[in-house]
Amino acid sequence: MPTYDYECDGCGHDFELFQQMTAPVKKKCPECGKLKLRRLVGTGAGVIFKGSGFYETDYRSDSYRKAAEAEKKAVNGKSEKKNETKKTKTDAGAKTSAKSGEKTAAATK
Fold it and tell me: What is the pLDDT of residues 8-45, one digit of tens each?
């Protein structure tokens, strides 16, 4: 059941009321008794699950997420550079072996 905020336009009294979603909106102020009570529209509260079965990392701060993302990009960047140098060395080796293969074939003729 949600908690609703109410405010009286007559006396300015404001309070919270825990009631069902299907319950009718209260209209009578408990302080002054006037029918000038209105329910305020709020953003609500974020739901945070605590206890066993939930991970602490589910609710990490934005700064932690940004730092982790930057670290991940740095690691990926280094591994891509290593892959590029391996490809370059492999390509160069393949060209050399192809040339030596041509020489061998030419020498046998």
Answer: 999 999 999 888 889 999 999 999 999 999 998 876 66
* Domain range enclosing 8: 3-40
**Total structural domains within the chain:** 1
CB 26 within 8 A of CB 5: no
Please choose, from the candidates 18, 66, 64, the residue with its C-alpha nearest in 3D space to the C-alpha of residue 39. Answer: 18
Q: Is residue 95 part of a domain?
A: no
Question: Do residues 6 and 15 lie in contact, with contact meaning Cβ atoms separated by under 8 Å?
Answer: yes
Q: What is the pLDDT of residue 15?
A: 92
Cα gap 100→81, rounded to integer Å: 29
Mean pLDDT of 69-82: 78
- Using alpha carbons, list the distances in angstroms from residue 40 to 6, 44, 81: 6, 11, 57
Q: Is 76 inside any structural domain?
A: no
Predicted pLDDT at 11: 94
